[in-house]
Amino acid sequence: MKNPYIAQKTEIMEVIVETSSDLDVRTYKLKLDEGQEMKFMPGQFVELSIPGIGEAPFGFSSSPLESSQIEVTIKKVGSVTEAIHNLKPKDNLWIRGPFGNTFPVKEMEGSDIFYIAGGLGLAPLRPLILYMLHDTNRAKYGQIQMLLAARSTGDFIFKREYDDWAKSPNTNLTLTIDRPEEGWQGQVGFPHMLLPEINFNYSNAYVVLCGPPIMIKAVASKLQEMGVPTEKIVTTLEMRMTCGVGKCGKCNIGHQYVCIDGPVFSMAQLAEMPDEY
């Protein structure tokens, strides 16, 4: 049995600068040492470390159908992420995982899917999007609607893939920014304000959302006003995880540990937990 505390060495294959704003978000393509693979499912996360600097959790941002090379998307916000941002292709990172539960991909089969993402919140949803849009899985799901929000046009991540996503059968994509910008032809406004304007049938649907906590709460509240059952609203928390295996206790919310009971939770599950997310 693999020891979950022992990290494996990876090599950075490519660094993609995602944002043109001051958010400084980058995607790192990583290849495990000696041709090893890392299999995972949408929603799971890994712990990345640099010896002498520290370790931090990050959700996968790549397709789970590709295990020989994985991707993580990282915003520079602290010492570990700053050190990672200073690395270049061919440098090494150490990785533990995968950890955590997954989005309920089997339970979602046969349903319509509405993705709502704010800023960097799109990163942990991208594996699920790529999984559902893949030719081998697309027919298992109904209509797919995406509402992707960002502070400004320079803050959208994975922009290079939006056209391909929107071309998938029975798939619609809407972009919105917080404030008007010259030349912007998309929507302006926060996701919870735009929901009533989007033609989508929630009667047989899951809503998958991720973003800043204030966005998650506003969107979840609006969806409940519109009659969406809380057990069909799913999010991923990715907060305070340290050990990844439920031993350190730093990510517990009430009797739940985000790293092993989550990071994927329904709003029905979160409603039974202390209001800490």
Low-confidence segments, ≥5 residues, pLDDT <50?
none
Beta-sheet strand percentage?
A: 25-35%
Lateral strand order in the biggest sheet: 10-9-8-7-11-12-15
Order of helices and strands: EEEEEHEHEHEHEEHEHEEEHEH
The number of distinct β-strands equals 15
The radius of gyration over CA amounts to 18 Å
Class inferred from helices and paired strands:
alpha/beta
Q: How far from one another are the termini?
A: 33 Å
> Helix share of residues?
10-25%
Number of helices: 8
Shape: globular
The quaternary state of the protein chains shown equals single chain
Largest sheet: 7 strands, mixed
User: Mean pLDDT, as a whole number?
Assistant: 93
Structural account:
By secondary structure, this protein is an alpha/beta fold. Helices cover 20% and strands 31% of the residues. The protein has eight helices and 15 strands. The strands form three sheets. Strands 10-9-8-7-11-12-15 form a seven-stranded mixed beta sheet, sandwiched between helices. It has a six-stranded antiparallel beta sheet with strand order 4-3-6-1-2-5, covered by helices on one side. The longest helix is centred in the last third of the chain and has 13 residues, at 213-225. The two termini are 33 Å apart. The mean pLDDT is 93.
